[in-house]
Write a structure and sequence with these properties.
heterodimer, A: mainly alpha, Rna Polymerase Sigma Factor, Chain: A, Arc Repressor Mutant, subunit A, 2 domains, 9 helices, B: alpha+beta, Nuclear Transport Factor 2, Chain: A, 3 domains, six-stranded mixed β-sheet, 19 strands, disordered C terminus
Chain lengths: 184, 407
């Protein structure tokens, strides 16, 4: 369903449009929120934030025709920052380092250190170079924290094969990173 | 740097990087979408009522978290509470009755007891059955000590005794005529200690059970993990065809699978493996699809994507070698449990315990958590999954006293 169809559905059946938005862009928003909150929030916190994003968007959709994906991306990033702040204060981690201040900056004003950006680029390129399904297995296992059995079910493999591939892929990734001067 | 630390570097990713990561993340399932939809709709409705304001995120606590504690603890706590209440009441009563004589409370029973009380030198014996007795020591003005028993139904008895010869009595089943004795009570702390000891012994017996099952775990590891090439005779193979799916595009195609004959394996037939699993694993039937006794044979076509790992053919077990292409080709990856690794028993209760075990597979040390449940007095393996070495070490440290006995 494209954006125009969602906007048409919004006029005839707002509830269905809301659901269609979630089905269409749920994973995208989840990925943005998860990326910011994975180290500090629980699964429930992340879902709260994602649902906030869609509620906010839905409030805006009444007004005018918009680029839904772009707007969702912006709302998601800003909401995730708000949640990050809130969760940090909940966890009483009041001492915020300079590095974290960068993370707390809003929207386009984020000044990331070039070092972090470079590390991310190298890491993602190395993961991608492992090929499929190893790159997916690594992301799901270590970034998303999923169990081997659950990953296995999604990619039609046995859990032990996933474990084996995962062990080999992480070894390979480590040596690739070390070859690029990144100590792991 | 630990594995998960490497991936922490992906945080705060840019738009394009998010796109790359998202492609590899799992899809949201229907339950998640339903949950998010419900939450989002509620927030939207609330916001409309509040003039379009969603409000700031606040941590809300709702629902009831069930607190579980062992039954024995409830009993002990109840008994301790009764004893405390009784002490208060008895103390008040004695205080009111003491009539100018210094009264020192001595021993207070925790609950109605059957008590026999004897006296020195063959004096009359008073037996108080099903009566609550409060025993007090009375010190008169000359410093002489008397012993007095007050009961709620039995005759009162006051006996003068020499404190140096007073001996503790049993709990009601001793013969009359025994030396004079004090009524015995069990302080709550002793009862708690006894319960703790019992609990500890149960844990120990689980530990022993786990140790006994250690040999079985070795076999299970060999079944669940990919076997070493040394177990396979690559000169004795056959090929079948089955379906496969490109999980990125969803397209299906046919692929060939090669089976190789196993040699020197723990089992000689699929039926033997199944029988072993049936005696040691819950839901052993879940593994049926991984073991075929007759469905797989040279040249056959299986119209599905999951094909058995093990099959019987020509009186031997053959192994699906697909996994091997991903395995370390070195000779040192015979799957095995580490001989000297401790089994860390965690969160044991009467029907469940966890054993965190270090094992060796695919050329590296790995750690897994095995969950056992009790079925009719037999411990069966229910689940097995990977844990990090840090988790294993933490569990082993917590259970150090229990696990040290296991070699």
């Amino acid at each position: 369903m494209n954006d125009n169809e969602i906007m048409s559905l919004l006029r005839s059946s707002p509830g269905d449009a809301h659901r269609a938005l979630l089905e269409q862009y749920g994973k995208y928003v989840y990925a943005i929120v998860y990326n910011r909150l994975r180290s500090i929030g629980s699964a429930e916190d992340i879902e709260e934030c994602v649902s906030d994003v869609f509620a906010s968007l839905f409030l805006s959709l009444d007004r005018e025709s918009i680029n839904i994906k772009a707007m969702l991306g912006t709302i998601a990033r800003n909401k995730a920052i708000d949640y990050y702040r809130s969760l940090r204060s909940r966890n009483r981690l009041s001492a915020i380092s300079d590095e974290d201040m960068g993370k707390l900056g809003s929207g386009d004003n984020i000044e990331e250190s070039s070092e972090n950006k470079e590390l991310r680029e190298i890491l993602l390129a190395s993961i991608n170079s492992l090929g499929e399904p190893d790159s997916t297995i690594l992301i799901q296992k270590f970034y998303c924290g999923r169990r081997s059995a659950d990953i296995a079910e999604d990619i039609s493999m046995t859990a032990s094969t996933v474990r084996s591939r995962c062990a080999r892929a992480i070894k390979k990734l480590r040596s690739m990173l070390e070859a690029k001067g990144i100590t792991v | 740097m630990k594995d998960k630390d490497i991936f922490d570097a992906l945080e705060n990713a840019s738009e394009s990087e998010i796109g790359e990561i998202m492609d590899k993340m799992p899809e949201l399932d229907n339950d998640q979408i339903n949950r998010l939809y419900k939450l989002s709709e509620e927030k939207y409705s609330r916001a409309k009522e509040n003039g379009g304001e969603l409000g700031e995120y606040q941590v809300q606590v709702s629902g009831v978290e069930r607190y579980k504690q062992p039954v024995w603890r409830r009993i002990v706590y109840s008994a301790a509470a009764c004893a405390a209440a009784f002490v208060c009441i008895a103390g008040t009563v004695m205080f009111l009755k003491r009539g100018g004589t210094e009264v020192v409370p001595d021993v207070v029973p925790t609950s109605p007891l059957t008590v026999q009380e004897g006296t020195m030198s063959g004096e009359s014996v008073v037996t108080a059955t099903d009566a609550v007795i409060t025993h007090v020591m009375i010190i008169d003005e000359t410093g002489k000590i008397s012993s007095a028993a007050e009961s709620n139904g039995a005759a009162d008895a006051v006996t003068t005794v020499d404190p140096s010869v007073t001996q503790p009595s049993g709990s009601g089943n001793e013969d009359a005529g025994q030396p004079a004795s004090e009524p015995v009570t069990v302080p709550p702390s002793e009862a708690q200690e006894a319960e703790k000891l019992e609990e500890y012994n149960k844990m120990l017996s689980m530990q022993e059970t786990a140790a006994v099952r250690f040999e079985n775990l070795r076999k299970m590891i060999k079944i669940f993990e990919c076997p070493n090439r040394e177990y396979l005779d690559m000169n004795d193979t056959f090929t079948i065809t089955c379906m496969a799916e490109d999980h990125r595009t969803g397209e299906t195609y046919d692929r060939e699978v090669t089976y190789a004959r196993m040699t020197g394996f723990e089992f000689s037939s699929v039926a033997e493996m199944k029988s072993f699993l049936n005696s040691n694993v819950t839901y052993a039937d879940l593994y049926d699809h991984q073991m075929s006794e007759s469905e797989v044979y040279p040249g056959c076509y299986l119209a599905r994507m999951t094909v058995p790992r093990y099959c019987d053919y020509n009186g031997s077990i053959y192994y699906n070698t697909t996994d091997l292409e991903y395995m370390n080709t070195s000779d040192d990856h015979v799957p095995q449990l580490m001989d000297r690794s401790a089994i860390a028993v965690r969160e044991g209760d009467e029907s469940t315990f966890y054993a965190d075990i270090e094992y060796f597979s695919d050329g590296m040390n790995r750690t897994g958590e095995f969950k056992f449940v009790s079925y009719g007095g037999t411990w069966l393996l229910e689940t097995f999954y990977d844990i990090s070495y840090e988790e294993y070490q933490a569990a082993a440290a917590e259970n150090r006293n229990l696990s040290d006995s296991i070699g």
